[in-house]
Amino acid sequence: MIRAKKSLGQNFLIDDKVLKQIVNCVAIENKTILEIGPGTGNLTKYILNKKPKHFTVIEKDNDLANKLKERFKENLNIINNDILNVDERSLFKEKVIVFGNLPYNISTEILSKWIINLKNDFWFENLVLMFQKEVADRIIANYNNSNYGRLSILANWKLIIKKICDIKPNSFLPKPKIDSSLLFFTPRKDFYKINDPKNLEKITRVFFSNRRKMIKKPFNQIFNGDPRILEKLNVDLNLRPQNLNFETYYKLTEEYENLRS
Hints:
The chain is of the alpha/beta class. It folds into 2 domains: 6-187, Rossmann fold, CATH 3.40.50.150; 197-260, rRNA adenine dimethylase, C-terminal domain (Helicase, Ruva Protein, domain 3). Helix content is 36%, strand content 19%. It is built from 10 helices and 9 strands. The strands form 2 sheets. The chain has a 7-stranded mixed sheet. Helix 2 (42-49) links the parallel strand 2 and strand 3 (54-58).
């Protein structure tokens, strides 16, 4: 009997209805698939039934990795490692579809890592990922919304995001105390060109350091109150950080990079 480890943020998805909904999000047959944190293999089984061409799973837990080897034999490639230490791009020669019931304690870190390390060519076709509902709400939030913030701006920069469904605690073992949400990510064909994603991280960090206050202070901190940038981007310093749309933050990042070049 495998027990979930709290230290690894493990909650195993056991609801067959939800598992079927996940694998039906995207065509799997003859595709290269990566599953993050397969746990006891409940979703893994459904993915295998869809006949992928290549199937790799990344599982940090040694006990679970061994159980997966016993259960699925030679049907999948098992990498026993921490996803944060893996260079996914180096694993595959073709684009992959990624499934993941991400550990709640590092889900935003995983997504942020993938986005920051993205080049102009994407290593994945789609991401089908589960998050805490409150995190998912932040990812999909648009401006003028209380959930809108740094994660929304970063995630929507290079990705089109669609919410598939919310999932209740009863679908997991052990039951988490919160609801979850399943999100579907597709690469954007046209996205705002920023030289270094870490600059976007910096701009949003400074602007959202006090999200309840007007943006005059962070703007002055970064741009020294430059009126040319204000006029060029049509920015109102009386607004609050959540009132600026995605594109404005991308343009602010571009202006910041221009100043530093």
